[in-house]
Amino acid sequence: GQIKEVPPASSSDDGRPRVTWRGDGQFVAVSAICPQTGARKVRVWSRELVLQSTSEPIPGLEQALAWKPSGSLIASTQEKPNKHDVVFFEKNGLLHGEFTLPFQKGQAKVNELLWNLDSTILAVWLEDLKKEKNSETNTYVQLWTVGNYHWYLKQSLHFGSAEKSRLVSLLWDPEIPYRLHALCRGWHALCYDWHWSTDCSTGDESHLVANVAVIDGDKVLVTAFQHSVVPPPMCTFQLQLQQAVNQVAFHTDPTKSADLAVLDASNRISVYRVGDGTVKDPTVTLGGSGFKASVETPHLEKTYRVEVCCGEGKQVNPLAFRLFTWLQDDTFLAVSQGQLATHSVIHHLTEGLEAEGGLSMPVDGDVISLCCNPKTRAIALQLADGQILKYLWGECKIPVKMSGLETDGCHGTEAILGLTDRCRFFINDVEVASNVTSFARYDEFLLVTTHSHTCQCVSLRDTSLKVLQAGFSSSSTPKETLRKMERGSRIVTVVPQDTKLILQMPRGNLETVHHRALVLAQIRKWLDRLMFKEAFECMRKLRINLNLLYDHNPKVFLENVETFIKQIDSVNYINLFFTELKEEDFTKTMYPSPVSSNVPLQQYPDQKKVDLICDSMRAAMENINPQKYCLSILTSHVKKSTPELEIALQKVHELRETVSPAAEGVTAEAALKYLLFLVDVNELYDHSLGTYDFDLVVMVAEKSQKDPKEYLPFLNTLQKMETNYQHYTIDKYLKRYKKALCHLSKCGTEHFSEFLNLVKDQNLYNEALKLYPPDTPEHQAVGSAFAEHLNQKHLYEQAGLIFARCGAFERALDAFLSSGSWQQALCMASRLGYTVDQLAGLARSLAGKLVEQRKHAEAAILLEQYAQDYEEAVLLLLEGTVWEEALRLIHKYSRLDILETNFKPAILEAQRNYLVFLDSQKTTFTRHRKRLLVVRELKEQARQGLLDNETPNCLEADLISETSSIVTASDMSGKYSHSNSRISARSSKNRRKAERKRHSLKEGSPLEDLALLEALGENIPCSDLFLAGEVHSLLKGLVLFGYDELARELQQALEEALQLIERSLPEIWTRDLQQNPANPVGAWLGRGSSLRGAVGCPTAAQ
């Protein structure tokens, strides 16, 4: 190929080499003129001076050279045939990107390029090329930044042509990234601190403007976010100016927030206003990069220069004004440098007035930021030392520190929000968070982005600073207020009366998010204003559950159901609403209200929410236009908690019978097809069958996947049947057995056997008995079947009663005998006409069973009255210790000989047995009591030893209960419980065994004291049994026959036993133990006190 010739360096090149190091010091780039060709080349060397690369031949390459500190690119300049570019090299020497400087060819030369510390700003130092020898040369410094691969000229500083203002040196600060130092010939040193700010309009509810302006050299790019979201460098419209723009200010009046003013590098203010639609301004063009939107554009109303007097004593400062703010219609506020470095001057700039006129005020301090409250028009100034001043239109004073925020809450109190370059976020003088990267305030909300890549939205209404601080530092932030986002995102603006939050990514592209807190707040506002359509569309688009439409305020929704339907005015949307309905209250679960709401409770607490809405809306739709809302009416039936499918199917059938459907109505076919979409086809087929309407059944079956060969024969068979039997067959097929039974009962006696089989199969005896009158044979047959069923379930007494009702006395007698109901059994025997001998045999059989159950008195009645065997009856009474009844029978039949042969020996034997039993009870009770006291003493000693081994103030000492004699299984039996872990609890027998093993009376067992308490507790009811009549009755018998000594002996033994128990009660069951609810035997305590009073047998011995 041909060798490309490179022309030599331009005449404006100073010919000197340039050296620039990469940020990490590993490589160095050198730009020098090649001796052979006379053209400039850039070579990259390692720090060991090993050549890495040489740049490709670039015609017109100039001397300026700067390696980006982040290391990716090397910047230089190139003069091209028709333009002047800043070009970028990679480390390998190849070109990678460029941008054009806003000068004609040969108009200016670039002295230096300088990157700031964090590689975000490129400073370009230029000066005019001398055309003639004595002509003046102007010096410029331009600051460029890149976003979305587009280079923006953000600031242009014109140092003028005066000798003393000529720039000698330009340097970025090595520590503070946005600080730029400049030195002029007149020994004026300038220090600029730059910071990023987003210029956006402050629209209110009546003026929905969300415009954001971007400075791009001599253009201002404006994006109207309420119309469209387009990423820069695209825009909605752009303003073309004559000079490079330095500052932009939107009107602070919310009603005029689309108006904007521009301050350019030559201190000219251009005012652009929106409103007069007839004026077409050629400097305002729609769109950018091929994008267009139909919005109202502003027009240039006027331009005027603000004169800055520069006398001999004045400082050189190309940026005459900073913090440019539009105060009111013709008044602008700006800050300039004072006579001293630490002083500032506030200027009111108006048309025709010089900045040095009367409307200026010196401030003792360096003003670094300024903000205006659009509602109150109050202006706050921040000084470099951190002080906040309030500018009161003509005076400047320092107010007391605003600490009222904490007590009054943020709402309704003026407060200043601030963010430092170290991400510390302040409200007034209180640091609220330390990881905030950007913030915005909208309505009652504060939105912040954080280093943890989240966007947090908190309500300032009725919120104290402490709550805000806690909210920002808490890890468990509510889901509604927190949202994850892309790393490095920053807030641009919030679109008013919308839910859009615009974020900018580090590369420059935009992202729109709908923050849940903003969305819900806006939906709540719409619902409060009954703007259902806006709320519905927003909820549908952003996937908010539609239950909120009702749950937000149930009373208001139900009162305005017709309004809701008319606003939505879409069958599909209403159906969507129905299908999302759920019983839960979403304001308590998914979307809790940020403030306590005053919404009244539901008016109809008995009715389910879904049913209530379905009924209300169906009534409203039938009232408005039943034809139009036909499908929605069907949905309201299907979506009820118990779906009303029969009614829905009936409505479809009615549609079919309508000759000509209304113009906006639906056909029966369409309605059925829709119903099949909501309900499973087989379920719908069954329900249609349940209407007994065969036309409807065929209509549904045709839409299903069912084979006509299957369902048509079945339907034909049904149609041939008698109506009641047909209904019975259908109900049985659908397993609606109660209904089937009802229909079958009307089919006549020939189907009664089928009826009875159905009753037995489905256990429907109660229902069946109601279907026939009591005196009919069918009722008797059902009753007998029911009684047999009860017999099989071993419910003998109930079976006997049913048998008796039905007249089956034999079966009733068997049932009563099995249940032991001897009175009923004798009644049945009487109904069956038993002879005296048969009755006697029956009585003896029953008496034997009663004796087994220890019911001696009842057995004696049977023997005496039915078997006429009073002797056997007396013997049974003596066996059962029923002394007085035995005496009655002996005297009734004048058999006093039995007194000597049987009665007296029996009472003497009983007295001896009671004495032996009482003696053994006393011995056992005393032994257990003594052992219990010993065990308690040992446990107390062990506890004291445990405490002595620990520190005096040990926590455990306070925790050990006074009632340490009751120990739970987990306290003292760790090893014991482990050994028992294999004990299975599969049966109650095993459980009882395990329980006995746990509470063992064996000396030294872990829970011996518990076992002793239980054993002692059992002794009290045993003693109490004697007083329930047995001993009392025996004592009366002994006294009657003159055995006074024996009676006295028995009574004394009983009294001693009871006194022993009474005396022992306080020491066994101490007061602490009585109050312990876990005490397993404390239930007997109340009984001990009554024992003494029960011993009151009046005997002759007393």
SSE inventory with pairings:
Blueprint: E1 18-21, E2 27-33, E3 40-46, E4 51-54, E5 61-67, E6 74-79, E7 84-89, E8 95-100, E9 108-115, E10 122-128, E11 139-147, E12 150-160, E13 167-172, E14 179-184, E15 189-193, E16 199-200, E17 211-216, E18 219-224, E19 237-240, E20 245-250, E21 260-264, E22 268-273, E23 284-286, E24 299-305, E25 322-328, E26 331-337, E27 344-349, E28 360-363, E29 367-372, E30 379-383, E31 388-391, E32 396-397, H1 404-408, E33 417-419, E34 425-427, E35 430-433, E36 436-442, E37 445-450, E38 454-459, H2 465-473, E39 482-484, E40 490-494, E41 500-504, E42 510-514, H3 516-528, H4 532-541, H5 548-551, H6 554-559, H7 561-568, H8 571-580, H9 609-624, H10 630-638, H11 645-657, H12 668-678, H13 681-690, H14 694-703, H15 708-720, H16 723-733, H17 737-745, H18 752-762, H19 765-771, H20 777-792, H21 796-806, H22 809-819, H23 822-831, H24 836-852, H25 856-865, H26 870-879, H27 883-892, H28 897-948, H29 955-959, H30 969-972, H31 974-979, H32 988-998, H33 1008-1025, H34 1030-1040, H35 1044-1068, H36 1071-1075, H37 1085-1094
Antiparallel strand pairs: 1-2, 2-3, 3-4, 5-6, 6-7, 7-8, 9-10, 10-11, 11-12, 13-14, 14-15, 16-17, 17-18, 18-19, 19-23, 20-21, 21-22, 22-24, 25-26, 26-27, 27-28, 29-30, 30-31, 31-32, 33-34, 34-35, 36-37, 37-38, 38-39, 40-41, 41-42
Helix pairs in contact: 3-4, 8-10, 9-10, 10-11, 10-12, 11-12, 13-14, 14-15, 16-17, 17-18, 18-20, 19-20, 20-21, 21-22, 22-23, 23-24, 24-25, 25-26, 26-27, 27-28, 28-33, 28-34, 28-35, 33-37, 34-35, 35-37
